[in-house]
Amino acid sequence: MLGIEDGHTPGDAADLAIMASAMSSLAEATAMLARQGRPIDIKTLRSITYRFSRRARATQGVAQLGAHMSLQGCRCAVSVDGGRIRIRTPKRGHHTPKKRQRYHTDWREPKLLHIWLLSEDGIILREASPWIDGTLRGPDVIFGQLRYYLTAFGVTEADHVLFIADGHAGYGHE
Asked: Does 171 map to a domain?
């Protein structure tokens, strides 16, 4: 009823998740927490962080989005862009001589969505946090997210909406 899971309050779980994401590795995060007098096992930190992120993702809804950001009477910029990242997938079979598991690094193309509020001069308003989301599941999913967010934020009530593109030469050019 109080939101306590695995002996950690929601605030404590948020602190642990922030520490895990702020450090370059979970081992570094556990070392920092131990120095602060909060020793925690790396597996426990990982499970708390994953559970916290799942709960945070699940609580994103239209009602919360509308309370934080509205495009009514505003100018906004929307950008959808892609990139390339490498994803490690473990190989089956023998380990290296140093007992490390071998892996494949396959290229994936993430799609990212940014929505910014702009001033009258077209400058990004720093006092309004941008909305950023992304997916590895392709363009259909990212455009579904774009439609969802713009509907939730009330894009039809915005004064101006600017769509930004990178001008990829592969589309519409001969």
From this structure: no
The H-or-E segment that residue 75 falls in is strand 75-82
Q: What is the mean pLDDT of each run of 10 residues along the chain (174 residues)?
A: 68 86 90 91 90 73 50 87 85 90 88 89 86 85 88 86 75 46
Cβ-in-10-Å burial (0-12, 13-18, 19+) of 81 comes to middle
Q: How many domains does the chain have?
A: 2
Same domain, residue pair 146 and 80: yes
Cβ-contact 113, 79 below 8 angstroms: yes
Regarding whether 131 and 75 lie in a shared domain, the answer is yes
Distance, in Å, from the CA atom of 37 to the CA atom of 75, rounded to the nearest integer, reads: 47
Q: Which of 18, 33, 100 is nearest to 41 (CA)?
A: 33
Q: What letters, b where the CB count within 10 A reaches 16 and e where it falls short, cover 158-170? A: beebeeeeeeeee
28 and 103 part of one domain: no
The residue segments making up the domain with residue 47 are: 10-58
Cα–Cα distance for residue pair 48/56, rounded to 1 Å: 12
pTM for the model: 0.53
